[in-house]
Amino acid sequence: MDIWAKAGIGITAAAAAGWVLVQNRTLVTDKLTLSVKGLPKAFDGKKILHLSDLHGKRYGDNFNNLINSCAFLEPDYIFFTGDLFTRTEEDLEPKMVLMRRLMKLADVYYCNGNHECDAPSKANTLNLALSREGVHVLVNSTERIYEDGEYISITGVALPKDHYRKNNGFKDLTEITPELMRRLVGHPDRSSVCFLLAHDPLPFDAYAAWGADVTFSGHIHGGVIRLPFIGGLLSPERRFFPKYSKGLYHIGKAKLVVSAGLGKFRLNNPSQLLLITLKRC
């Protein structure tokens, strides 16, 4: 191989490495309008900022780049659908800093993901601290969001650990069913529109059958690598071409909104801020 061929290979490798680096530092905002049947009039036009799967990623000192991007969007509520930290992280104080800063922008509603399941002691300590700070930590619990005397209900489900991984593998995982949902979180509040925060989007049919009008999820990281005309390539459970990886999906009248997330390795799949404007219909 002559010197010019070697130089060409070196330049190509450097360009590819640079492209990968840029891909993993890019943060984009996607917007969608979500029509919700029965949405109370007071919530028409309200904006939800959907975040998920930060893991160990940072965006500038004290998350300045992330916070500035969030502040620009002027959300009314912030939904964070799990994996705020990575199971191996020891110092979770930066996550407290992030959530405090997010709370200055809007009320924050947070549910656990699989990394919280894998580190229950850390998650419990963090959740208690977040609750004391005013974050709405929804661990198999339901609250109401009020506006001008009207309300919607919001439930956060903590899916069992063996739904995500069993015996350090991905075989014979616990299936999420409507019956299991009822055991975990009870029955949905049918006096109002019901929002559900559920880290894993793949059991969407169970969430819809349980009674969620709109489910907000993450977990899939957009499929890690997104392929043109196909979508996400891989789920954390090593499933190829996951059915729900990014964006808006429907089963009957039920809707699912999946965030591509903020952290982890990704290609053709930038980290995402998802701004959702509610519309009454």
In short:
The protein is built from eight helices and 14 strands. Helix content is about 30%, strand content about 25%. The strands form three sheets. It has a six-stranded mixed β-sheet, covered by helices on one side.
Would you kindly provide a written description of the structure presented here, covering whatever features stand out?
The chain has 281 residues and is of the alpha/beta class. It has a single domain, classed as Purple Acid Phosphatase, chain A, domain 2, CATH 3.60.21.10. 28% of the residues lie in helices and 26% in strands. The protein starts with a helix and ends with a strand. Mean pLDDT is 92; it is low at 9-17.
Structural class: alpha/beta
Which architecture would the CATH scheme give at its second level?
4-Layer Sandwich
> Got a strand count?
14
Kindly give the count of domains.
Answer: 1
* Largest sheet data: 6 strands, mixed
CATH topology: Purple Acid Phosphatase, chain A, domain 2
* SSE string, helices as H and strands as E: HEEHEHEHHEEEHHEHEEEEEE
Name the CATH superfamily classification. Answer: Metallo-dependent phosphatases
Average of per-residue pLDDT values: 92
What's the alpha carbon Rg, rounded to whole Å? 19 Å
Q: Could you give the order of strands across the largest sheet?
A: 1-14-2-3-4-5
Strand content: 25-35%
First and last CA, distance: 66 Å
Q: Tell me, what is the CATH class?
A: Alpha Beta
Outline the fold blueprint.
Blueprint: H1 3-23, E1 27-36, E2 47-51, H2 64-73, E3 77-80, H3 93-103, E4 107-110, H4 114-118, H5 120-133, E5 136-137, E6 141-147, E7 150-157, H6 161-164, H7 178-185, E8 194-198, H8 204-210, E9 214-217, E10 226-227, E11 231-232, E12 247-251, E13 254-258, E14 271-280
Parallel strand pairs: 1-14, 2-3, 3-4, 4-5, 7-8, 8-9, 9-13
Antiparallel strand pairs: 2-14, 6-7, 10-11, 12-13
Helix pairs in contact: 7-8
